[in-house]
Amino acid sequence: MTQKDDDLVLDGNAVAGTLSEIYGDDMTTVLAECASCGQVDHVGGLVAYVHAPGIVLRCTSCSTVMLRIVQTPTRTYVDVRAKRIAPPP
Amino acid sequence: MRGQLQWQIATVKAIRPETPEVKTLTLSLPAWVAHRPGQHYDIRLTAPDGYSAQRSYSVASEPERTGEIDITIERIADGEVSTFLADTVRAGDRFEVRGPIGGYFVWDRSIGGPLLLVAGGSGVVPLMAMLRHRDAAGLTNPARLLYSARSFDQVIYADELAKLAQKDGVTVSYTLTRNQPQGWKGYTRRIDDAMLKEVSAPLGADALAYICGPTSLVEVAADGLERVGLPAEHIRTERFGPSGP
């Protein structure tokens, strides 16, 4: 990973507002379990990539995708891959 | 826990330069609610053609200040939101905000405990809200800040941190990784285990650690604090890249 890419990495705290919009409540303190390696982290601590057309949250241990969000002017698409996180209401 | 967040229109009340690349905006909020130090607000800018961009900014001020918040903006080259907030915004301007947001990276009097804060660059902003809250609320929890910056002229809040460090229970340590003033007695290297051990030892294993900065610094500091004896559940992190949030 180059330094420039590294600087683009944020965490789940940075997308707390969007998650709150989708779930209707704060999600950063919810625990998420990686479906691949079993690592458990608070959603606020997940690795976040936000400088793309969508938001991707990944496992802090093995980088497996945990949650993907794409917002269009009319709809929001949420793809939950992690265990313990409910699908949006 | 709170329900659905609402957007509100903030008005820029004051603008204060912090360093050549960093400014603090004071925003008046019609629907202000007390935040927990470490929380942030989303800012949404919308162009006349409907294009909008949204970013998340940590609150720098303490919740004891009612009706307004400070946010501290680092100007990022080509950052479409930060360049607007740093270069174009004037007092009296208005834009949309929503918050406070986030319950993970927060500290306040209800949490207590010895406090270990580790900052890289503008990652000091949410940690400053914690120190300001500690001071404004008259709390006596020991607090130690380790602040990594490239040079002293890039240190944000330097004068205020110097004043806080003269008070009981607060210690501020700097590591200046690129340039140091003549006669500098602080650290001069990137954060490592030896440095973390020196800074954290006086607080003991009960300390709660909050680390905020670029992801590389966050990982080095979080792993290092575990290696020098702090339990993982006492360590909270926020990755705060210079390119965002």
List the helices and strands and how they pair.
The complex is a heterodimer of chains A (89) and B (245).
Chain A: H1 3-7, E1 9-11, H2 16-23, E2 31-33, E3 40-42, E4 47-49, E5 55-58, E6 65-71, E7 76-80
Antiparallel strand pairs in A: 1-4, 2-3, 4-5, 5-6, 6-7
Chain B: E1 8-19, E2 22-28, E3 40-46, E4 52-58, E5 68-74, H1 82-88, E6 94-101, E7 115-120, H2 124-136, E8 143-149, H3 158-165, E9 170-176, H4 193-200, E10 208-213, H5 215-227, E11 235-239
Parallel strand pairs in B: 7-8, 7-10, 8-9, 10-11
Antiparallel strand pairs in B: 1-2, 1-6, 2-5, 3-4, 3-6
Helix pairs in contact in B: 4-5
**Whole-number average pLDDT of chain A?**
89
Question: SSE string of chain B, helix = H, strand = E?
Answer: EEEEEHEEHEHEHEHE
Low-confidence stretches of chain A: none
Any idea what the radius of gyration of chain A is? 12 Å
* CATH domain topology of the largest domain in chain B: Rossmann fold
Number of domains of chain B: 2
Order of helices and strands of chain A: HEHEEEEEE
Number of helices of chain B: 5
How would you portray this structure in words?
- The complex is a heterodimer of chains A (89) and B (245).
- With 89 residues, chain A is an alpha+beta fold.
- Chain A has one domain (3-80).
- Chain A has helices at residues 3-7, 16-23; strands spanning 9-11, 31-33, 40-42, 47-49, 55-58, 65-71, 76-80.
- A 5-stranded antiparallel beta sheet of chain A has the order 1-4-5-6-7. Chain A has a two-stranded antiparallel ribbon with strand order 2-3.
- In chain A, a hairpin with a 6-residue loop joins β5 (55-58) and β6 (65-71).
- The longest helix of chain A has 8 residues, at 16-23.
- The radius of gyration of chain A is 12 Å and the shape is globular.
- Chain A starts with a helix and ends in a 9-residue tail after the last strand.
- The model of chain A has no long low-confidence stretch (mean pLDDT 89).
- With 245 residues, chain B is α/β, with parallel strands linked by helices.
- Chain B folds into 2 domains: 8-101, Translation factors (Elongation Factor Tu (Ef-tu), domain 3); 115-239, Nucleotide-binding domain of ferredoxin-NADP reductase (FNR) module (Rossmann fold, 3-Layer(aba) Sandwich), CATH 3.40.50.80.
- Chain B contains 5 helices and 11 strands, in the order βββββαββαβαβαβαβ.
- Chain B has helices at residues 82-88, 124-136, 158-165, 193-200, 215-227, and strands at 8-19, 22-28, 40-46, 52-58, 68-74, 94-101, 115-120, 143-149, 170-176, 208-213, 235-239.
- In chain B, strands 4-3-6-1-2-5 form a 6-stranded antiparallel beta sheet. Chain B has a 5-stranded parallel beta sheet with strand order 9-8-7-10-11, sandwiched between helices.
- In chain B, α2 (124-136) links the parallel β7 (115-120) and β8 (143-149).
- Chain B is globular, with a radius of gyration of 18 Å.
- The two termini of chain B are 23 Å apart.
- The relative contact order of chain B is 0.16.
- The mean pLDDT of chain B is 93.
- Chains A and B meet through α1, β1 and α2 of A and β6 and β11 of B.
